[in-house]
Design brief:
Elements lengths: L2 H11 L1 H21 L6 H33 L1
């Protein structure tokens, strides 16, 4: 199973992974809203930085779960 297949499987079958993916999508939408602004004030810039860090942390957690699943399946 490649990473995309594992991700789809985990979204369907792992509640925690699904919640991580949903939160990741929420952060992505928030970033898109910020970037679409013609001008980012200081607070917007700070928010952008915080959201990017949170989004990256979620991605790391998701990657770890994907890796664990792939390892368990190959064992």
């Amino acid at each position: 199973m490649d990473e995309i297949d594992v991700k789809e499987y985990l979204i369907e079958n792992d509640q925690t992974f699904r919640e991580l993916a949903d939160q990741h999508r929420t952060y992505e939408q928030q970033l898109e809203e910020l970037v679409s602004k013609p001008y980012l004030n200081t607070q917007d810039q700070l928010d952008e930085s915080v959201i990017k860090k949170k989004k990256l942390a979620l991605k790391d957690q998701m990657q770890l779960r994907i890796h664990r699943h792939q390892t368990q399946q190959s064992a």
